[in-house]
Structures are given as structure tokens and as C-alpha cells.
Amino acid sequence: MRHFIVVGILIILVSVLLTIGLDAANLMPLDASAQAAPIDWMWKVMEIAMSFLFALIVVPMVYSLIVFRRRRGETGDGAHFEGNTTLELLWSSIPLVVVVAFSVIGAGNLSQTLSRDPNAMIVKVTGIQWSWKFEYPADPATGLVVVSDELHLPVNKQVLLRMTSSDVIHSFWVPEFRVKQDLVPGRFTELTITPTREGNYKVSCAELCGTSHAFMVKPVLVTTMDEYNAWLAQELVKAKEAASTPEGLGQLLVAQNGCAACHSINGAVGIGPTWFGLFGSEVELSDGATVVADEAFITESIQNPSAKIVTGFESQQMVQYTFTTEELAAIVAYIKTLK
Amino acid sequence: MKNNSLGKAFLLLVIAGAVGYGIGLGLDALVTGGLNFSGSVASAFTLLFGFTAFFFGLYGYRGITRGLVFQVVGTVAGALFVTGIRALLRLTAFGAFFFSEPAWVFGALVGVLSFIAGVGIVTDWYKWARGMDTPEHHEDEPGWEKYFSVSLDHKVIGIQYTVTALFLIAVGGTFALIFRTELAASELQFLTTTFRAFNQTGPQFYNTLMSLHGMIMIVSILLGVSGIINYVVPMIIGAQDMAFPRLNAFAYWVAVPASVLLLMALVLGGFDTGWTGYPPLSARAPVGMQMFFLGVFTAGWSSILGALNVIATVLRMRAKGMTAMRMPIFVWASIATSIIALTATQLIGLSFQLVMFQRLFGMGFFDAAKGGNPVLFQHLFWFYSHPAVYVFVLPGLGVISELLPVFVRKPLFGYRWIAMSSLGIALVGFVVWAHHMFTSGMNEYLRVPFMYSTMLVAVPTGVKFFSWVATIWGGKIETPTPMLFVIGAIVVFLLGGVTGPPNAMVALDLHLHDTYWVVGHFHDTIFGGFVFPFFAAIYYWFPKATGRRMNEFWGKVHFWLMTPSFLTLTFGMMYIGLRGMRRRVADYDAALGFDNAHLILTICGFLIALSVLIFFINFFRSIKHGEPAAGNVWNSRSPEWLVPSPMPAHNYEVPFEVVGEPYDYGLPGSKYVEFAAKKAGKH
């Protein structure tokens, strides 16, 4: 009986100490969204549960290993004790009730993170190997849409991200916002976030998406509504200016579609061939032929990347992009300027 | 093992490797017109030729060597066949990897079948088909040579499985050390974009190594599980062998060409999808992806047929008096794991086959543009791959339950409950798969029932933990090396267990999913549920197989070096995971401040490798030089320890009858089994 009392006290002591320790370690990153609150609350509950379960098993085990160890010269067996049905029933039925209770709480917890504001701002998100493309609500006056590879959000305003992918599965994750959602080609998935803290964060892809998965990271800026509106207005002006020349439009499209993730514009070796000095140069293909990188070749390579593969890039397949003829010409015009 | 044959083997490895390299380089140059010194084709031929020549030097042209020669010839012949047809149809005959993708796939398939024919495992069946008789049971020659060709003895096959598993652990572990080194600091250090190996850049090579680490370890675990079950189960139920000895040998040997295919995936351009192989990414990866799919598909056969055999053996071949509730507890675990392996493995084979067909024939099963659904793949894949985790851990938990009573000298507390909890875990395991997909875009509300079912796993698992603690409580506890690993297994598996429910809570999992938290949690469950018990089982049954025991001192060094390093490793993983470290990334942002943590993780990784190296040396040295241990080393009640070690070829010369409970330690005068000869000898 003495053993049971000592172990009981030790279990309580160890679980309390572990909980305090885990709590003090402050394991979650900064919380910057309304969705983080229920999730962090659940984590605290889990800290208690994990500490208690760990103590419940490890304390009596370590206690036994010390107290009931075989002493030097001791022979013989332990007490013959085959089991106890009451105990077995208790330690299967109590956990059963507990896990069902946890599941009920967990379901409520989930619904809290899913709560929707009908007036949420809608941003369309496209995952691209290996960049993010964010399309903001159209300007009511002109109907123009700002497209950027940065996510700008006003604080304390719920945003509904309507997400899809142009190639493979990606996953949207800002650790400070907690919630995560995959982007699936051919369909839209949704994620609601209400930023609650101004600051600079980063969105990264959490679902393995190929060679440069690790580098699919773009800035997220949470600002006041005024700052957000000012940024949006400024981007609109920039977009209008850029669209006035083919080279400018090309540069804008290249930035929006994350082409720089693979193609450098300074001659550096990347995942795809560099664009520096590409136009007009002679390119060696993997089947041994050579071809001059003219308008036709570059256009074909964008629309049907595997038609002609440049030597050294056999193991990396580029996704097919769909652009209008005007946009294709603009991109070629931009590449022409890279010398 | 003769030193001169090992020397000859390495010499031939180098020579044949060089010849293969030259041939590959030449073939590549024929097609591309340039020399690619780190290219795939040269490497593939180096691998195939070198590997085969190594066994030729060691063993001569028979058994495994003949199988490998057949596989190489079959692969090339199959690939040439398809290339010829493509040339006739005026399709592209050659691709970036010399042969085109369909040619490689068909060649690899023919290679596997050729291996099976070459190694001689279908010879008996072939003779039966022609109406010829074969001996019922072959006697093996004594010595090490029987391990390199087909044997029908379950003990030989068990050891073949175990040693292959250890080899793959070494390969998979080496891959982990390479990418762990790259992760030691932020920024890319040596796997840079200008790095080239097997036609892959640094980040691509990182992804390939990381993906193969996963799958090679999984195959190694499946083989390790089969190893223990094959060696132990027939012995402890009093059978002479498995129910179907030829099927048993087939199940082992088919895993060998599968392992070769997995290594081929490394050199044929690799693949960057992780072991999960999600399309559309896996529909776009290089040819290595197909080798991976085909390798796993082939290894799956091993798993299914092995499981079938275990179930048949346990159902039909138990000793007299061994009722269901008097079976050794490890047998219950083997049955539970075999039920899963027999019925779920088909789903991973199917899901991988569908992607193979999507790539080869343009069938858009998972291609959104053709009306396919990429999320469907995840359902099919996890329907096997979650229960698979229980295939890995249930035998390990069985080892814990089997060994605990021996070392605490007390009966197993709640035998029936532990036995039933294995089945409980196996059954609940079938309805939890979608908890891997909480962020996948599956129906939002369907996630809730999967949270319920996932949490339910805690109940039978809890029964096991509580019963183990009650078993230990009040015992007379001894702690030789196997018991140390059993205790380590309980603690580490507990850590894996308690870090599970946070993942089951859907909302919290939206943060935890695809982070290092999950990596830490998973490694805890697998080390606690498989790796620690596997080592415990090897230290425990080693004397049974060899008549010698492994060195205690180095066994303890292995334990005390591995355990703290491993705990630090997984705690570190979980910590950075919570703080925002994504999994499966070649690099991380220095601004996250994880550099120090990753450096520590890398050091821990190398310490674990060092401890396993110590184990390997101890293992191979003890075969010849270990302390002789012919008797009942652990003072166990189990029948296999009541006969001399090493175990005779047909196990028990006289059959035994079960006359008591298996774990009645501390009950004076009680016996578990009684040998028929003892009665007969008295008069």
C-alpha cells in the first residue's frame, strides 16, 4: 500500500512539473490570427494531457525498476499475479469516455476555427512551382485586378482565401496564423484567416512540391486598412504603367507567375536555363541537336516545355503555362531585353 | 566467412563496377553525343554489374548471384524489346536515361521475374507442373553458404530476412546522414544547385535521398518484422516449419529484386515526392519514380504472401494443447499484424499502379485536366499506409509483451486483454486513414468522424501500457541488454503515443500537419514500436540461432549511446516543428533561428549511427567469437529454450504438449510445455 501512495503522489508531482515546464517553454510561435486562439487553447489542454499520461506510465515503471530490481545474490521469481479484470475494465472504459469527450471538444474547437464572416475579403491564391500568386479584389472604379507574389492583408478583417494550384499540390501555411490548407489542381479549396497582429510574416509551402519546395516562401504583410489600401492603389498604378509597353507587361507577368524561381536573369545556374543572353543564342538540346533561341522557340518552350529539352535539364519537367498570344509576345519581348 | 572470398568479392565489385560504368558511359554517349560522368546510365550499369559481381566473388555462380545475373540480363533484354517495338512504331526509341521510360519499366518488370527464375525459387513448382517429384523438405548444408541461396527452413529464411533488413537499415540510415548533414546549417552547403549526381541537382538529390530514406526504411521494417515472425513463430508454437515452406522462401526472395529496384530509383534520375508519391507530382517526376513504384509493388508481394503463410501456420500447426488463450503472446501480435498485411497491402500496390499507368498509358486517374482526382490517390494510399504503421509496431509490441515476463519473473498481467488489444488496434487502424488528410481538401466535416476513430486507438494502446506497468510492478527485475531495449521501447513508444492525440485534434493538426512535429512523433512510434523491440529480439534470440550470445558490454554501450541521442533527436524535431519548421525541405530560413537546433539534431543522428555501427560489429563478431550459450540463457519457460541451441534443423526432435499457462513465473511446479520423450524415457 505504501508503494501505491508514493507512486500516486509522484505521478501528480511529475505531471504538474511537466505541465509547468511545457507551458514555460512557450512552444507555439507568435499568434497573429483569430484562428490561433482556439488552436493554442487546445495545445494547452494537450500539454496537460500529455504530461499526465507520460507520468502515469513512466513514474510507476521507473519506480518499479528501482524498488523492485533484483538485488545482488537474490534468486527466485516475483509474485504470481496473473491479472485483474476489474482493473482492465477500468483502464479501458475510463479512457474510452475520455477520448470521446476529447473528440466532442475537438469538434467544437474545429468549428471555432472555421467560423466565417459573410463580408470577408476574398483573395484568390494560386500555387505555382515554386511561387505564390495572389489576386486581390477588383478595383471597383476601373475593374483592374492587382496581382502580386506578396500577400498584403489588413488587420482585424477576415480574409477568405480561394486557393488552387496550376501544377502539383501545394499547401498554404503561415505558422503565426496556425491554420494550413492544401491547394489542389483542378479545384478550389478555401481557408479563412483573420489577422489580428500587424507585422511581417512568411507564407511557405508545407506540402512537398518538387525540387525547390524548400524555397517556395513569400512575404505576408499585415498592416492597417489604410496602409493596405495605399499599397493596393500604388500597385494599380504600377500595373497600368507596366501594361503600356510589351517589355513592361512581360516583366510584370514574369513576376506574377514566379518564373524567377527557376530561370535566373543574371546568368546564374538555376533549375531551368537562365534567360540572360538567351535570346538569339544557340542552344544545345538533349537529343544532340542545336537550335537558335528565337521567338518561336521561346514561345514553344512556354506552351509545351517538354517538346525541346535543353541539355542538362532532362530531369526537371516544367509545367505548361497558358498565356494569351499578346502575353506570350510580351514575355518574349522582356526576355529580349535581358543581355 | 572466408576472408579471401570477401576480398575477391570486393575486387570483383570494383572491376565489374568499372566495366559497367564504361558501358553505361558509352551507351549514353551514343545517344547524347557527350560524356556525362555523373550521369544516370553509367551509374545504373555500375550498380547492376558491381552488385552482381560482389556476390559472384563471395559465393560463385549460384543462388543469389544467379538471380542477380538473371535480373541484369532480364532488365536489359526487356528494355531492348520495348525499344525495338518503339523503333518499329517510329516512336522515340531512346530517352534522357538511354532507354525510354516504358522500356525501363518493362525491363525492370522482366528483371524481377528473371531474378525469381534465376534464384531457383520456382524450380520445385515448375517440376510439379511437369509431374516430377521433389523431396518434401530439403536439408541445408551446415555453414554460412545456405543463407545465399534458396532454403526452405523457416529459421534460415528468418535470418535471411533479418540480415537483409539490417543491410537496408544501413543504407537508409546512410541516406539520412547525408541529408541530415546538409540540414546542419541553413543555406545549401554541398547539395547546391551546381552539384550534380545521377542527373540530379543538389536539391533534387536531397529530395531523392529523403524519399528513399523513408521507403527503404519501411521495406527494411517489413523485412525485419517478417524476420522475427519467421524465425520465432513456428518455433514457439511447436511447428517444424511454416505451413508453406516454398511460398515462404518466395516471399523472401521477391524482396531482393525489389530492393535492387529501390536503389535503381536513386540513380535513374531519382524522384522528389517523398515516400508518399502523391500525384500530380509523382506523375511528373523522372524515371526513378517508376522504379520506386515497381519496387514497392514487388515488395508488397512479399508482405502479402508472408502474412498468408503466418496465418495458415498459426491456425493449423500449433502444438497439442495450445489453445488460442495459451499461445505465446507474440503469436497474437503476429496474427494481428498479418491480418493487416494480408488485406491492406493491395491498396498501396493499386494506388502506385494507377500512377504508373497514368504515366505509361496516359490514363488520367489523378489528372484533374482529364477529370481525375488527385485527392482520391491519398485515400487509397493511406488506406494501406496508416494500417501499415500498425504492421510495423504490433510485432514490436508483441516482443515487449513476450520478453517482459522473462525479465521481471512475473506472469504477463492481463494476457487476454493484451492479446485482444492487438486485434483491437489492427481493426480500428482500418478506419482512421483520413487523419493524414486533414488539410488535403477532403470534406471539411468528414474530418470529425476520423478524429473520433483516431482517438479510439488510444484505448487498446492504453490497455497495453497499463498491463505492462502492472507486469513490471512487484517483479524481480533483471536488466540484461534485451530488457534494456524493452524498457527503452516502452518509454519511446509512450512518447510516440502521447504525441499522437494532438495530431488527431483536427484544428490543432492544421498547425502540426507536415511539420517536424509529425516527423518527431512518427520516429518515436517507429523506434519505440519497431527499432527498440527489434534490437531486443535480436539480442534475445541471437543465442538460439548461433549458440553464442552477443557481448553484454557492447550491447549496453549500444543502448546507452542510442537512447539519449534518439530522445534528444525527436524532442528537438518536435520543438522546431511546433515553432514552424516544415518537413521534407532541403533548406530553411536562417531567420527562423533553427540553426543551433539542427546542428544538435545532426550530431544526434551521427551518434545513433555510431551506436548502430557498434551493434553491427558486435553482431557479426559474436557469430564466431561470442560467449558460448547453448542452454536456457534467459531462464525462460518458452519451449524453444528447453532444447539446445542452435536450434536443430527440424526444430523439436520430439513434439511437446502444452500443459500450462505460458507465463506462470513464480508459480512453483508449473510448466508451460512437456516433451513427449520425457514421459517415454521413464519406463
Q: How is the quaternary structure best described?
A: heterodimer
Shape, per Cα inertia axes of chain B: globular
The biggest beta sheet of chain B is recorded as: 2 strands, antiparallel
Q: What is the 3D shape of chain A? A: elongated
Helix/strand/pairing category of chain A:
alpha+beta
Uncertain segments of chain A: none
Mean pLDDT of chain B, rounded to whole units?
A: 92
Mean pLDDT of chain A comes to: 89
- Rg from Cα of chain B: 25 Å
* CATH domain class name of the largest domain in chain A: Mainly Beta
The total count of strands of chain B amounts to: 6
With helices defined by DSSP (H or I, 4 residues minimum), what is the helix count of chain A? Answer: 7
Radius of gyration of chain A, whole Å:
29 Å
How do the strands of the widest beta sheet of chain B line up side by side?
Answer: 1-2
- The appropriate CATH architecture of the largest domain in chain A is Sandwich
Share of β-strand residues of chain B: under 5%
The CATH superfamily of the largest domain in chain A turns out to be: Cupredoxins -  blue copper proteins
Instruction: Encode the helix/strand succession of chain A as letters.
Output: HHHEEEEEEEEEEHHEEHH
Describe the structure.
The complex is a heterodimer of chains A (about 350) and B (about 675). With about 350 residues, chain A is an alpha+beta fold. Chain A is built from 7 helices and 12 strands. Chain A has 3 domains: about 1-65 and about 90-115; about 120-240, Cupredoxins -  blue copper proteins (Immunoglobulin-like); about 245-335, Cytochrome c-like domain (Cytochrome Bc1 Complex, Chain D, domain 2). Chain A has a 5-stranded mixed sheet with strand order 3-2-1-5-8, with no helix packed on it. The relative contact order of chain A is 0.10. The mean pLDDT of chain A is about 90. With about 675 residues, chain B is mainly alpha-helical. In chain B, the strands form 3 sheets. Chain B has a two-stranded antiparallel sheet. In chain B, strands 3-4 form a two-stranded antiparallel ribbon. A two-stranded antiparallel sheet of chain B has the order 5-6. The radius of gyration of chain B is 25 Å and the shape is globular. The relative contact order of chain B is 0.08. The interface between A and B is large, with 90 and 105 residues.
